[in-house]
């Protein structure tokens, strides 16, 4: 703690009356310990270990993360309602809802709440929810890859849901998230069962345009190859004119 506000906060949470109303800048923890000892308090109290405002230290075990597809959100008020509903669930410690991606990310204590309870909390306020399967490390080692695709022709949330449904039904696809605002789709898939060309074909068969969205380093690589080809072609042409 480095200011009077921190000290006041700690005493408030301990339901004590603060003995120090102001701590000068630069005062260290050892000096504060001396203040407690002089006033008959337990000097072994670790101020840095005091719980922070807005957090909970009552959970036991390891927290887990969960991603849920939320269908039916149309505005910021919708995403706010979903977030509030999730935070009211006992055992949920953090919830973040992305409207454009139709996705909620939840951090929870599995010993206090189940994945189905989180899903039902969303459905109880009028939205559809689908838990995104977790991809194990073992699956990734065996060939799970992530591809990003640029999808054309989407005009509304129904288009997004249609493309996501098509992608998730493909063999080997473990996760698919499509964003209308950026016209991008991110797909996790098992390269032993399906490849990027087959994913693009599936999107095009549904009436949309699709192409692989190359990463920056890949674009640089292909640009370099193109420039190299043009350079060699120019040299060959100049040599033939001699």
TrEMBL record:
UniProt-recorded Gene Ontology molecular function terms: copper ion binding; P-type divalent copper transporter activity
Keyword Translocase: yes
Record's keyword terms, sorted: Copper, Copper transport, Ion transport, Magnesium, Metal-binding, Translocase, Transport
Keyword Membrane found: no
Subcellular location per the Swiss-Prot or TrEMBL entry: Endomembrane system
GO CC field: membrane
Domain HMA: 64-130, 145-211
SUPFAM superfamilies, per the entry: HMA, heavy metal-associated domain
Bilayer topology: Multi-pass membrane protein
Any one biological process term the GO annotation gives: copper ion homeostasis
Main location: membrane
CDD domains: HMA
InterPro entries: Heavy-metal-associated_CS, HMA_Cu_ion-bd, HMA_dom, HMA_dom_sf, MerP/CopZ
Superkingdom of source: Eukaryota
Listed Pfam families: HMA
Gene3D superfamilies xref list: 3.30.70.100
Protein name according to UniProt: HMA domain-containing protein
Species this protein is from: Taxus chinensis (Chinese yew)
């Amino acid at each position: 703690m480095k200011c009077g506000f921190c000290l006041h906060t700690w005493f408030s949470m301990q339901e004590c009356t603060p003995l120090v109303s102001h701590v000068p800048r630069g005062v260290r923890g050892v000096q504060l310990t001396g203040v407690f000892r002089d006033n008959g308090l337990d000097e072994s109290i670790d101020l840095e270990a005091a719980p922070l405002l807005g957090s909970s230290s009552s959970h036991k075990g390891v927290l887990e993360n969960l991603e849920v597809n939320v269908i039916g959100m149309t505005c910021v008020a919708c995403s706010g309602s979903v977030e509030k509903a999730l935070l009211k669930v006992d055992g949920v410690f953090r919830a973040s809802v992305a409207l454009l991606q139709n996705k909620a990310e939840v951090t929870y204590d599995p010993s206090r709440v189940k994945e189905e309870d989180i899903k039902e909390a969303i459905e109880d306020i009028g939205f559809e929810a689908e838990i995104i399967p977790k991809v194990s490390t073992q699956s990734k080692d065996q060939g799970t890859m992530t591809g990003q695709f640029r999808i054309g022709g989407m005009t509304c949330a129904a288009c997004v849901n249609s493309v996501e449904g098509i992608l998730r039904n493909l063999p080997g696809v473990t996760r698919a998230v499509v964003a209308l605002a950026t016209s991008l789709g991110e797909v996790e898939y098992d390269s032993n069962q399906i490849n990027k060309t087959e994913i693009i074909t599936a999107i095009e068969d549904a009436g949309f345009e699709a192409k692989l969205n190359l990463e920056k380093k890949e674009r640089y690589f292909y640009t370099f190859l193109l420039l190299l080809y043009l350079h060699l072609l120019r040299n060959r042409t100049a040599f033939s004119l001699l």
